[in-house]
């Protein structure tokens, strides 16, 4: 761990009312002292109580650079558990850069991305799961992802993992003690007791794993692809979802030649939507490439929005689309319901009934803004069991965490198998230790420097 003094601009680099420069490390207060003046003279910040704020001027020798407020937070009561000073300047980009250069000239080093949070982790103020929650909080794309990040930042996942690890460690300690001192510690009846304990642990890990897919979708959004024949209303639907004229809409078939991607929120759910070219037997070279892209996007989608023009009968292009999406999660949007119908909802359901399952069909009209509420409700049913709410549930939103929990789950399954095969106690201990170590990676207790570097390299500068 580096123990020098670091500094960075902690606010966005844009013209704003206030910009903050954060300094942390053993010389943070002294660096600030060299450039901070109170009133007409210089005053040492070390003479003040921690967690106080002071008015004065930022100065480069005799030259006054800005009128500022300085926040003083002495170790260990700071974000990094080091001495920390935050300079609140006026928020001009040029001014902030000059102020930062002044700080660097007087003894600080430019911080690496995520280095403040990394020091908070290495100094033991937060575990690795809470450090990752900081980044998730910054990048939250909807209300539910934000709440999940806040819960993890408060330690909900860490607390659940620590409780499970504590119970596993107790069993490991008992087995090791019994093996070392069999005369005084009996293992009679222990396999039955351990089996019940492992069952309970597996159930809790299973619930964590079940939360992982929903947590990922809330955090990252659902990969959604709009498909349909040309002029079915796909681009009009995208414009309706986005809330602006994002895609060109005309009466000419084949207007959309390339994929158009947008991130939207509907009913609190994030969708990463791709509007594709209308699928048909295209003759135009450019349109043919667009149709090929549409098929590729549909194959990789987590949700297909199949837009059907209710004013036109189904044809061979619809049959091709239905075959393309039959193994996907599909919502059929029966569009243009404000026009004279040529296709009924019942006949459309009958076509999909050949798949042996009921496909949701929602009547929509992009022109009349009809069907969005029913659409949002259907997504909740398909992906979130009809509701989205944090309640008191611990939710996994990270692939890294899910993999660690899965490995712990698999190790405990091995313990169960050893118990069923009446293997010696030391076999239980090996797999229990593997489960304990796997869960430790979530907290950062069983991780290498390379992984730590990778995680914090994704942070923004100044955090």
TrEMBL record:
Recorded GO MF terms: GTP binding; GTPase activity; identical protein binding; metal ion binding
CDD domains the UniProt entry points to: trmE, TrmE_N
Annotated compartments: Cytoplasm
Record-annotated TrmE-type G domain positions: 221-384
GO biological process, one term: tRNA wobble uridine modification
Binding site for GTP: 231-236, 250-256, 275-278, 365-367
Annotated Mg(2+) binding sites: 235, 256
Assembly notes: Homodimer. Heterotetramer of two MnmE and two MnmG subunits.
Protein name in UniProt: tRNA modification GTPase MnmE
Organism of provenance: Candidatus Eisenbergiella merdigallinarum
